[in-house]
Amino acid sequence: MKAASREALAQCQEKLDGYLREHDVQAAAQTGLDLFEVVGVLDDHRDLRVALTDDAAPAEARQSLVRELFGSKVAESTLQVLNDAVAQNWSTGKEFVNGLSTIGHRALLRGAEAQGQLEQVEDELFQLSRVLDREGELTQLLSDRTASSAKKRGLLANVLYGKVSMFAEALALQAIGRPEKNSIDDVAALAAQAADLRDRTIAHVAVARDVNDNQQAVLAEKLGKIYGRAVSIHTEVDPSLLGGMKIRVGDEVIDGSIQGKIARLRTAMSA
């Protein structure tokens, strides 16, 4: 996003948080779901995107258009968010719609937080990203550009039914129906947003064998001291590591696996 859109998004997210503090979990969930519906409409109608981001028109005129288009179709909290959004200056109509999508994510995550499920949702989204990474056929079907968004959402909904929280399912379905990069990265990015709301840095940890909760807690404490911030551990089992673990935090990789040690030894011997 360009600077103007980043500032607009930050302002809208701050106001959203204020609204949701005054409402219940249901309001947060409904706001998120409503915003995804609005985004779907705006994705299909360029003329509306242009009209709602035309800074030559008074903010009141843009807000009046919002009420006319969506006032009877969305919750009051959603209408407040939309009014705030169109009052901001966005760099482009596309960035405006992307911003609404991000705000929708945040509303659902705040709902999960109010329900005491934010950590659970973060883990569910991460685990789903790993499933998509392993299940190439499923990921290919979800990435099929010739298939409708509704069909892909229906496919994923069948996979997720009864296995994840309502918040994780809603977020995943939106990501699949409106891809930004690819299904794996988009779902992983949602997990990262959940971690960020918890003021945590994500550590991706690949291990040769399962680690228990106590081992994860010890590792999180050690990494927290290294990075100066609480760390959320996302683990996956990779038997090819043979033993030990491989940790990635951002662009930094700490490879303490047996596989990595063997590779370094081979390199040293061939030098």
From TrEMBL:
It comes from the Bacteria. Pfam families: OSCP (PF00213). It is a peripheral membrane protein. Gene3D superfamilies: N-terminal domain of the delta subunit of the F1F0-ATP synthase (1.10.520.20). Keywords: ATP synthesis, Cell membrane, CF(1), Hydrogen ion transport, Ion transport, Membrane, Transport. It is found in: Cell membrane; Membrane. F(1)F(0) ATP synthase produces ATP from ADP in the presence of a proton or sodium gradient. F-type ATPases consist of two structural domains, F(1) containing the extramembraneous catalytic core and F(0) containing the membrane proton channel, linked together by a central stalk and a peripheral stalk. During catalysis, ATP synthesis in the catalytic domain of F(1) is coupled via a rotary mechanism of the central stalk subunits to proton translocation. HAMAP family: ATP_synth_delta_bact. Belongs to the ATPase delta chain family. This is ATP synthase subunit delta. It comes from Corynebacterium massiliense DSM 45435.
